[in-house]
Amino acid sequence: MQVVKTPPSGFPALVLNADYRPLSYYPLSLWPWQEAVKAVFLERVDVIAQYDHTVHSPSFEMRLPSVISLRDYVSQDRPPAFTRFNVFLRDGFVCQYCGSPDDLTFDHLIPRSKGGRTTWENIVAACGPCNLTKGGRLSRECGMHPARKPRRPNMHELQAMGRRFPPHYLHESWMDYLYWDVELDA
């Protein structure tokens, strides 16, 4: 990961909840500068830090926000959405059968052909080869068992998992609000 002093292309704004914590770590909660400026004018956010870059209109000039916080708190206690991405995040972006990070799909522990449902408790991340090998069989039938028993994570667990995967770049103005061990590049 690289911490940069110059803004990332596109001037994204880091979005913090009203408690000054990021809404999301993975993917990192970023808004395009246009959305950030619109939210400032609609008084939905407060500007915490700014880039040196400005935008102009005939009657207005504004430095682009680099960090904004929502004025209204968004509860993080809601159950996470069941999505392919969140399953991969829960499982650390590795196949639960062989540990490979490549060619990820998801696998039904109890195959759909045998009545298995698409739920947190029945789905694991699996690489393509392992998924094909297991096929429509139960784990006990083919001797393939996931490294961890799948379960529904809460938002705090997904956020903690997301902190294990920092983005490729971070702007220095974001560092006071993110919790990764990184060193600033010169």
How does this structure look, described?
The protein is of the alpha/beta class and 186 residues long. The chain is built from five helices and eight strands. It has helices at 33-41, 84-90, 128-134, 139-142, 155-162; strands at 2-4, 13-16, 30-31, 45-57, 60-70, 104-108, 123-127, 169-171. The strands form three sheets. The protein has a four-stranded mixed sheet.
Notable traits:
alpha/beta; four-stranded mixed sheet; 19% helix; disordered C terminus; 5 helices; single chain; 186 residues
The biggest beta sheet is recorded as: 4 strands, mixed
Number of DSSP E strands: 8
Beta strand %? 15-25%
Structural class: alpha/beta
In one word, what is the shape? elongated
Total count of helical runs of at least 4 residues: 5
